[in-house]
Structure formats: structure tokens, C-alpha cells
Amino acid sequence: MNSRRRLIVGISGATGAIYGVRMLEVLAKMEDMETHLVLSKAGKMTIQVETPFSVKDVEALADVVHDINNVGASISSGSFRTAGMVIAPCSMKSMGSIAHSIGGDLLVRAADVVLKERKKLVLVARETPLHLGHLEAMATLTRMGAVIFPPVPAFYHRPKTLDDVINQTVTRILDQFDIDVSLFHRWDDEGMSRHPDAKKPTPIAAAKERRAVKKPR
User: Fold this and answer.
1) Least enclosed by CB within 10 Å: which of 29, 79, 93, 217?
2) Amino acid 207: pLDDT
């Protein structure tokens, strides 16, 4: 019996291919993880346009690579056990197909299987601005149990490089599967201590102090 956790990673044609690539880089170093990669045709193009990696470089990071046209692959069946699936980035075309169960290729079919098996499906939706069709597809998928995860950058960890921004997003995506990679310093009390008002009493504490001063002795 396979003791490794299986995670399906899809990369579709939206901008932001580096999110999927970085995820594979991180997971490749974890002995207890087994990654199953599905690349769309547009996803392969985006990798070569946006990153220094070739498609073969990216495929080499995964444990198993599936042809998107092979709808009979292991991940097309609910009996093949996985921890779920993440599509990073997820194009609006792929998202719309998943929302309406149009399983024309393995990327969409695998996502549909994850949903029907009540496993975690995370869609790193990369588009802006959004029209009503996009928003309705997101709402539909959310009702179906998917997690819509736009790669919105955070700045509380004070990123100094683009890698810092990417790593924070990838860490938070993998948090959805309880995979702790900690590629950035998470928010904590130390972060709040940088606030100029951190040492000042809270409004409630200040009110209590004022009442204590006014109280007759």
C-alpha cells in the first residue's frame, strides 16, 4: 500500500505558471509526497514564455506526468486515492469547464473526480478584472466545495524579492492540504510588535484605566 500522500497538480494557460512550478519544486523535496502532474497545451506555452524552465524541466519535478488527452489515466477515477488537487494557475476556461462538469480532457476530468469524491480542490484563479460569468463560475464552484484561491500577494512578511511573494502564496496554497512548508515568516505577535501603536493600551484597556482612576478610594 502506498504510504505517500498523492497530490494532483494541474498547470493551465493563465499567467502565473511559476506558482505551479514552485509548488512542484517544494513538493519534490518531501519524501512523503507523490505528485501527479497534468499540463494543458496553453500551460506548456506559458511555462516557456514566463519562466526560465522548459516543459521537460517542469515534468521532471513530478513523480508522475499524465498526458492531458489520456482520460483513462489513474487520476480520472475516484478509486485512485489522492489528497486532492490544485490547479495553479487556473485559467478562466478551465474553471468554467470544471464549474459545468465539461470533462473534455484529463485536467477537467480529474478536478471533477476530486469534487465528486468530496476531496479538496484548490483553483488558483488568475484573471483580472472579472466579468459576471467569471464570478458566477466561482460561486458555483464554491457551492460545489472547491476553494477559489486568487494569488493575491501579502506584504505583512515584508517581501524583498518576487520570490518572497511567490513563496508566501505557495505556502498558503499548500496550507489548504495541511502541508506545512513554511517558505516565509508567518504572522505572529512579533509582526504586530512592529506597529507604532503596539505598546499602547487597547481602547478597552484604556477605558478600564480611566474608570479605575475616576473610582473614589
Assistant:
1) 217
2) 74
Cell numbers linked to 119: 476531496
Looking up cell 511573494 gives: 165
Contact 38, 62 (CB under 8 A): no
* Beta-strand pair 84-90/5-11: parallel
| SS3 label, residue 111 | helix
- Name beta bridge partners: 8: 36, 85
Per residue in 24-50, is it b (16+ CB within 10 Å) or e — as a string? bebbeeeeebbbbbbbbebbbebbeee
Q: Report how far residue 195's alpha carbon sits from residue 98's, in angstroms, rounded to the nearest whole number.
A: 43
SS3 182: coil
C-alpha cell at 211: 474608570
Rg of the Cα atoms in the chain: 21
Q: Which class for 200: exposed (0-12), middle (13-18), buried (19 or more C-beta within 10 A)?
A: exposed
pLDDT digits (tens, 9 = 90+) for 198-215: 666 666 666 777 777 766
Q: What is the pLDDT of residue 1?
A: 52
Give pTM, 2 decimals: 0.88
Q: Measured between alpha carbons, how far is 90 from 81 in angstroms, rounded to an integer?
A: 22
Q: Which helix (H) or strand (E) holds 39?
A: strand 33-39
In the block, which residue shows the cell 504510504? 3
Question: Residue 35 corresponds to which cell in the numbers above?
Answer: 505528485
Contacts of 206 (CB under 8 A, 6+ apart): 200
